TrEMBL record:
Species of provenance: Gigaspora rosea
Protein name (database record): B30.2/SPRY domain-containing protein
Keywords linked to the UniProt accession: Coiled coil, TPR repeat
Signal peptide positions (record): none
Stretches of the chain forming a coiled coil according to its record: 302-329
Matching InterPro entries: B30.2/SPRY, B30.2/SPRY_sf, ConA-like_dom_sf, SPRY_dom, TPR-like_helical_dom_sf, TPR_rpt, Ubq-SigPath_Reg
Pfam families with a match to the protein in the record: SPRY
TPR repeats: 177-210
Residue ranges constituting the B30.2/SPRY domain according to the UniProt record: 1-129
Length: 424
């Protein structure tokens, strides 16, 4: 595209309708002026794009799984929200969630095709958009339809808030159904999801079976990745309008997201199980055990924990002794140069009560003293850090260091000792 999108436009949305092309690559996104126009969106370091394989591409070809794949007869939308600095895509009127954040500069709409005999129709007219949330199609009140178009072009949140206050003060009552619908919708499309939920929930208090509110609450929770809450609203909507196409599509999309997450968790659990078995075998070999029970693991854990505690306590004792000697040395130098008052020899110096800043002020400005003082500050900082570590180790909130063979003992979430003992 040859015409730039400026951040001051607020929100910019466009769609492509895929007319031909089932093989090869199709991408839709955005770019700067300096990109290589022969590459796909996201294959250049100044372009970003959602491809028909379901991945979002960026930074010269890096990619993340994002949404479903798409092909012939699908309609894909791209929404650039400069107010929130975010980008989301839609597929056949279903919002797929945030794909990109930190939208900043002047950019251009970007479409890429590497598919034989492929063709797409690019749509910039709001009247033709398949994603109705960006249009005024579901706004009943004529005045609010006009305000909708104005709101999308307002420069910032303050201007949008002022528009809503003006509507409330001069035209509508606070609990007017049409106004609450408008406020819920405008805040949803602007990415102000908490505000959208506030207005939509108030609307449902007035009309519990309001299909508009249930639909947009379902969409809002979906964008916030609160899928359980989204499904509750969508199922309530389908009880009222059992053929609501958008609700059915979103419900199916959420189910697919949940299914994929479950598969990833199962895959992770299998990897962890394999690691656990491998490390258990290493432990058995290292400890000379014929079998490994939960009791054995607890014994190894406690032994390693105590070894770590003993090691830290030795370091603390050594550091405290070193600190005391350094402090005495500082005081003797200061007394010789009459820069600080004499201190009784029998006074003990508690490292925790040591005020280093005060000591710095009292000591004479001598280079050799400053060098030693830097060492003292480092020792003191290390000492306090070790003491904190010791308390964490004793309380079980910090795991002691072990040999590589015992790494599994560092991660209690990988190994439930009680459960393992019951299993073995």
């Amino acid at each position: 595209m040859n015409y730039p999108i400026y951040p001051k436009c607020g929100i910019f949305y466009f769609e492509i309708r895929i007319n031909k092309g089932t093989n090869g690559l199709i991408g839709i996104g955005f770019c700067t002026k300096t990109i290589d126009t022969n590459s796909m969106p996201g294959w250049d370091n100044e372009s970003w794009g959602y491809h028909n394989d379901g991945n979002f591409y960026y930074d010269s070809g890096k990619s993340n799984p994002y949404g479903p794949s798409f092909t012939k007869d699908d309609t894909i939308g791209c929404c650039l929200n400069f107010k929130r600095k975010t980008v989301f895509y839609t597929k056949n009127s279903v919002n797929l969630g945030i794909a990109f954040r930190d939208l900043e500069e002047v950019i251009y709409p970007c479409i890429g095709l590497q598919s034989q005999n492929s063709s797409v129709e690019v749509i910039f007219s709001r009247k033709k958009f398949k994603y109705t949330a960006i249009t005024d199609d579901d706004i009943v009140n004529e005045l609010l339809r006009k305000k909708w178009l104005e709101a999308l072009d307002l420069p910032n949140d303050e201007a949008i808030n002022q528009q809503q206050y003006n509507l409330l003060d001069s035209i509508f009552e606070p609990n007017n159904v049409h106004l609450l619908e408008y406020q819920g919708k405008i805040n949803f499309i602007l990415g102000r999801y908490e505000d959208a939920l506030l207005y939509l929930t108030n609307l449902l208090k007035i009309e519990p079976a309001n299909a508009f509110a249930l639909s947009y609450r379902g969409k809002t929770y979906q964008m916030m990745e609160k899928y359980k809450e989204s499904l509750v609203n969508l199922y309530s909507l389908l009880k009222i309008e059992n053929n609501d196409i958008c609700a059915l599509k979103i419900r199916n999309e959420i189910k697919e997201v949940i299914r994929e997450r479950k598969l990833k968790l199962e895959e992770r659990d299998l990897r962890v199980l394999g690691l656990r078995i491998q490390l258990e075998e290493m432990l058995m070999e290292q400890e000379g055990l014929a079998e490994l029970s939960g009791a054995h693991l607890k014994e190894i854990w406690e032994r390693k924990k105590q070894e770590e505690i003993d090691e830290v306590q030795k370091k603390i004792q050594s550091l405290e002794n070193d600190l005391k000697e350094k402090i005495k040395s500082f005081l003797e130098v200061g007394q010789q140069e009459q820069s600080i008052p004499k201190v009784p020899k029998q006074k003990e110096y508690n490292s925790e009560e040591l005020n280093l800043e005060k000591l710095i002020q009292l000591l004479p400005e001598r280079e050799y003293i400053q060098q030693d003082l830097d060492i003292l500050k480092s020792l003191h900082s290390h000492l306090l850090m070790l003491k904190d570590d010791l308390e964490l180790i004793k309380s079980g909130h910090k795991k002691p260091r072990e040999d590589d063979l015992l790494k599994i003992l560092k991660f209690p979430e990988f190994l439930d000792l009680n459960r393992l003992e019951q299993e073995l």
